[in-house]
């Protein structure tokens, strides 16, 4: 066991400069003096590397010995009844490519997903597919709904016309968390033109994983549902 393995400074051999001495020798170069030698440059590079990655040696076999973990499904909140819960997903032509990627990822990690269309990038009307997803949630066929269009705004408007649906347009992790914890959202809308594939998947994971907060939020969500009931009976 040497000093390096104990986290102690390396012992310098006679005539060998410390990293700090190497940096000083290279930076403080008086006019007219000879240029640094190759060994000086190597010492400087070693000093910089030591400062960036510390004393641990760089291992080229890290990827092989520590493979990236396989994707896993988000934990299921207690308020939705377990892993058997279904997800309805739909999109218009602008959201179709992202919808397909999310559909694949959700099934890959074990969710049962109902695809409500569309099935290509050919121009279609977003209200048709937003309503199809919202109805699946409203009638209890699915616990959650995810709708993707260009901006996510129109689909949220459509979904919220269906009684029992609380759709939220989310564009980052914070809005995803807030919509579930505070507003008990059961439909997520995404704007494919506003978020990239990676962020969209992170939003979906967070949205599915966050539990409904209840408590003081329950009273406020109940007020939303009372308002819906008031106008649906007129």
Compact overview of the structure:
By secondary structure, this protein is of the alpha/beta class.
Q: How would you describe this structure to a colleague?
A:
By secondary structure, this protein is of the alpha/beta class. It has 2 domains: 1-58, no CATH class; 83-232, Sugar-phosphate isomerase, RpiB/LacA/LacB (Ribose 5-phosphate Isomerase B, Chain: A, 3-Layer(aba) Sandwich). It is built from 9 helices and 5 strands. A 5-stranded parallel β-sheet has the order 2-1-3-5-4, with helices on both faces.
CATH H-level superfamily of the largest domain: Sugar-phosphate isomerase, RpiB/LacA/LacB
- Please state the CA-atom Rg, rounded to the nearest Å: 28 Å
- Give the oligomeric state: single chain
CATH class of the largest domain: Alpha Beta
Low-confidence stretches: 3-13, 22-27, 52-65, 73-83
The N- to C-terminal Cα distance equals 82 Å
Strand order of the largest sheet: 2-1-3-5-4
Describe the sheet with the most strands: 5 strands, parallel
Bin the strand percentage. 5-15%
Mean pLDDT: 79
Q: Please state the structural category.
A: alpha/beta
Number of DSSP helical runs: 9
Q: How do the helices and strands line up, and which of them pair or pack?
A:
Elements: H1 19-27, H2 38-53, H3 62-65, E1 86-91, H4 96-108, E2 112-115, H5 126-138, E3 144-149, H6 153-159, E4 167-169, H7 173-181, E5 187-191, H8 197-209, H9 216-232
Parallel strand pairs: 1-2, 1-3, 3-5, 4-5
């Amino acid at each position: 066991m040497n000093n390096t393995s104990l986290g102690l400074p390396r012992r310098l051999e006679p005539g060998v400069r410390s990293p700090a001495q190497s940096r000083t020798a290279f930076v403080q170069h008086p006019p007219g003096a000879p240029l640094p030698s190759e060994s000086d440059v190597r010492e400087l590079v070693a000093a910089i590397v030591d400062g960036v990655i510390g004393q641990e040696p760089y291992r080229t076999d890290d990827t092989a010995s520590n493979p990236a973990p396989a994707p896993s499904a988000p934990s299921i909140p207690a308020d939705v009844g377990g892993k058997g819960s279904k997800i309805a997903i739909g999109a218009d032509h602008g959201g179709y490519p992202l919808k397909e990627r999310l559909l694949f990822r959700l099934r890959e990690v074990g969710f049962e997903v109902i695809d409500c269309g569309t099935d290509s990038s050919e121009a279609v009307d977003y209200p048709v597919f937003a309503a199809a997803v919202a109805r699946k949630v409203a009638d209890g066929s699915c616990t959650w709904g995810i709708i993707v269009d260009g901006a996510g705004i129109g689909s949220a408007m459509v979904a919220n016309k269906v009684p029992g649906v609380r759709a939220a347009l989310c564009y980052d992790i914070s809005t995803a968390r807030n919509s579930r914890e505070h507003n008990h959202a059961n439909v997520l809308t995404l704007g494919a033109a506003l978020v990239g594939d990676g962020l969209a998947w992170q939003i979906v994971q967070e949205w599915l994983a966050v539990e409904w907060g209840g408590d003081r939020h329950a009273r406020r969500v109940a007020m939303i549902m009372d308002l819906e009931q008031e106008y649906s009976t007129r």
